[in-house]
Amino acid sequence: MRFAPGVRRFAVPAFAAAAVLAPLAFPLALAAIAIGGFVAWFFRDPERRPSGPGVVSPADGRVSVVREEGDQLRVGVFMNVTDVHVNRAPLDGRIERVTHRSGAHRPAFSKDSERNERVDVAVATDEGPAEISLIAGAFARRIHPYVAEGDDLARAERIGHIDFGSRADVLLPPAYDRADLLVTEGDRVRAGESIVAARER
To answer: pTM, whole model, 2 decimals?
Structure first.
């Protein structure tokens, strides 16, 4: 099993505590092992492949946002604590800029999350400008982008992860309209695999 970067920072202290506690307080040692195991599971990073042509989901979870923003459509995916938290590129393109914005840590599924800490990745695609947003949640305190300005993106490529609860959005290129959407709010999706929008060629 592959793991997202940073897993050692959280899992190793828990397993080390278990080793120290084992001869002193075995129940506490078991609790520490369980915590370390949960952290390792949370940081899992399974292989994914797109299930067809089109824009893939940037995250595992449930579609929580589908709305128009000017001449573009935004699709947001809320990641529960049980979901994989490694995020994927929804489409091919070239990164024009990566912007970090400090902010609050409201629940990622709420309207107030628009003011949360976030990293916005502006992408130039063959179909026009797009944007990927990694948004921190109530318990997420760190966003880890893997990409930088000038990088080429391949659809379903790993682009980052967020520690412990969050949301990932894709602002589709203007060429996409509501008729191209394949998901609605409440749908379950998988990062790099589920198709959220597709255009007829």
So the answer is: 0.82
Residue type, 33: I
99-110 pLDDT, tens digit each: 998 765 555 455
Structural domain for 175, as ranges: 55-197
Report yes or no on 1 lying in a domain. Answer: no
| Active-site residue identified among 64, 113, 133, 166 | 166
Do residue 35 and residue 97 come from a single domain?
no
For the question of residue 113 being annotated catalytic, the response is no
Pair (29, 128) in one structural domain: no
Assess whether pLDDT exceeds 90 at residue 51.
yes
Rounded CA gap, 113 and 142, in Å?
A: 15
CA dist list (Å): 148 to 55, 58, 63, 87, 151: 21, 17, 26, 15, 6
Q: How many domains does the chain have?
A: 2
Q: Distance between CA 59 and CA 169 in Å, rounded?
A: 8
